[in-house]
Write a structure and sequence with these properties.
By secondary structure, this protein is α/β, with parallel strands linked by helices. The protein contains ten helices and 15 strands. The chain folds into three domains: 84 residues, Arc Repressor Mutant, subunit A (Orthogonal Bundle); 93 residues, D-Maltodextrin-Binding Protein, domain 2 (3-Layer(aba) Sandwich), CATH 3.40.190; 110 residues, D-Maltodextrin-Binding Protein, domain 2, CATH 3.40.190. The longest helix has 25 residues.
């Protein structure tokens, strides 16, 4: 087959039509004409000497040979597209869309310190943030990168520290609740208190963990309210402010409520620390220009305490 632009174009046309299930659908998606796509597919079939698509007035379906070609060429063609995007990244002003999959905690506690200044530095980049508490396949979800904590990162991912490197879980309750129920002095005292708990979708209610010196305590306290981690956390805080019970959450999330006095710290010497989040992305692909710009921007930021 002749090497050159027409070959890549014909392959791309075949993949577009096969995936869209028709010439008109593919033409609309690729902003080209049905006739141009039809000519490209015919050229490719003539070069290969094999029919790749079965065409009827109602549908366009890949033949067995066409399906095999899709399976082999799809990933390779994706790499070619990524390579071209990588080359575009050498422009002075990277442009395009960057899609990030992050937990609600990162959207609330990490990204506000980064996003405004990043978008000001790169006005041609459009940033899309998807909040999701589950550890999704970011490639299958159509995202370029994600933010998660190290214990949940796949080994084939590249991880870059982002945001504070050490965080803590804190406990808090309203002054009225503590006046009525007393102040716990040890984590086990929580077993006789009303606790506002959280859980990830499809998982058990999360246990509470505490540490002080060499002592570590893990308890499963009772409580009148369970909220979904992330999305329901604000409801849990408001319930704690109203005196419903004691809540455990990221210290940075509860700090404004501590500072205003509507919540008081509980068991502060026992608050456990954990390592901060990471920006992660697939290590087997060329990095798109908008993601590369974001990575470099995050690396250049001063470390957060």
């Amino acid at each position: 087959m002749a090497q050159g632009k027409s070959e890549l174009g014909d392959i791309g046309a075949f993949l577009a039509v096969a995936r869209a299930g028709g010439f008109r659908e593919a033409a609309r998606a690729s902003n080209t004409s049905s006739s141009a796509l039809s000519d490209a597919v015919r050229r490719l079939e003539a070069e290969l000497g094999v029919r790749l698509l079965n065409r009827t007035t109602r549908s366009v379906v890949p033949t067995e040979a066409g399906r095999g070609l899709m399976e082999r060429l799809g990933p390779a063609f994706g790499e070619i597209t990524s390579a071209l995007e990588h080359v575009k990244g050498f422009r002075d002003r990277p442009a395009g869309t960057l899609k990030l999959n992050v937990p609600v905690s990162a959207a609330r506690l990490v990204l506000p310190e980064i996003v405004p200044s990043f978008l000001a530095a790169y006005p041609d980049i459009r940033l899309e943030i998807f909040t999701d508490e589950s550890f999704v396949d970011i490639v299958a979800a159509g995202c370029d990168a994600g933010i998660r904590y190290d214990e949940r990162l796949e080994q084939d991912m590249i991880a870059v520290p982002i945001g504070p490197r050490i965080q803590r879980f804190a406990c808090g309750a309203s002054p009225a609740y503590l006046a009525a129920r007393g102040r716990p002095n040890h984590p086990r005292d929580l077993l006789s208190h009303a606790c506002i708990r959280s859980r990830f979708a499809g998982r058990a209610v999360m246990a509470w963990e505490f540490e002080q010196g060499d002592e570590a305590v893990r308890i499963d306290p009772p409580g009148p309210l369970v909220v979904q981690a992330g999305g329901g956390s604000e409801l849990g805080i408001l319930a704690a402010v109203a005196g419903t019970g004691i809540i455990a959450l990221f210290e940075d999330w509860l700090n404004p409520y501590f500072e205003s006095g509507v919540l008081e710290p509980v068991l502060k010497p026992w608050w456990p620390s954990f390592s901060g989040p990471f920006l992660y992305y697939p290590g087997r692909r060329l990095v798109p220009a908008p993601l590369r710009a974001f990575i470099d921007f995050v690396k250049a930021m001063p470390a957060q305490p």
